[in-house]
Design brief:
By secondary structure, this protein is α/β, with parallel strands linked by helices. The chain is 30% helix and 27% strand. A hairpin with a 2-residue loop joins β8 and β9.
Length: 222
């Protein structure tokens, strides 16, 4: 009975998150709203943080990393403009929450995580939810995943000072990439649209992400 009560409380919390944290802030993509209302965000953080799991703010997940606030996850997914047929590259799997959302919106997700402990834990969480269309690799996300390119969509969940050329080269024609770009003091969510050999950039709104770190250990955001 206690387990059912907790489950009911989380369902209510998700509905409030969607209503007050997403719709009220301008998220209108019905598929994104539906999926955000179904995926259990609390599963992707430590149990000690479950009471805060549906607040519209980032939460720590260890190793100096965070799970992004629900609004930012929804906004990025909305900008990706997913129909359900896309192959997506996710750079920075983190907790696995964003990957879980993407798995419900796209055909397949290829997710890279630099920190082995986070990647392994995220994969376990995805498996426990029965999510089978997310392929996880431990490695340097700034280099992309060339063997599975081109990708219809690319999302980067850590900030870069400059847009990595390996990622733009792995973006398919008419593809979209969304990522935070800037310094540790000022970052913007940026939408990149590829049209033939040309890239069109749109700066969307200010954000705050942890920096993307390459295999060399150097931060990509300065």
């Amino acid at each position: 009975m206690a387990r059912k009560h907790a489950s009911d409380n989380f369902s209510i919390a998700r509905r409030l998150m969607v209503k007050e944290g997403l719709i009220a802030k301008g998220i209108s993509d019905t598929r994104v709203l539906e999926v955000m209302g179904l995926v259990p965000r609390h599963v992707f953080v430590d149990e000690a943080l479950w009471a805060e799991a549906y607040g519209d703010h980032a939460l720590p997940i260890g190793f100096g990393q965070t799970i992004s606030q629900p609004y930012i996850v929804a906004r990025i997914c909305e900008l990706l403009n997913l129909s359900g047929s896309e192959k997506v590259l996710e750079v920075g799997l983190g907790s696995g929450y964003h990957g879980a959302i993407l798995s419900k919106l796209a055909r397949s997700v290829f997710a890279i995580e630099r920190i082995p402990e986070l990647g392994d834990k995220a994969k376990h969480r995805l498996d426990s939810l029965g999510i089978k269309n997310v392929v996880v690799r431990i490695g340097d996300g700034s280099a992309g995943w060339k063997s599975f390119a081109p990708f219809d969509r690319i999302v980067v969940s850590a900030a870069v000072a400059e847009i990595p050329s390996p990622l733009t080269s792995q973006l398919g024609d008419s593809g979209r990439m969304v990522l935070p770009v800037g310094t540790q003091e000022e970052q913007w969510i940026v939408l990149i649209e590829k049209r033939g050999d040309r890239l069109h950039r749109t700066d969307i709104e200010p954000v705050r992400f942890v920096p993307l770190v390459s295999r060399s250990g150097r931060s990509a955001a300065r």
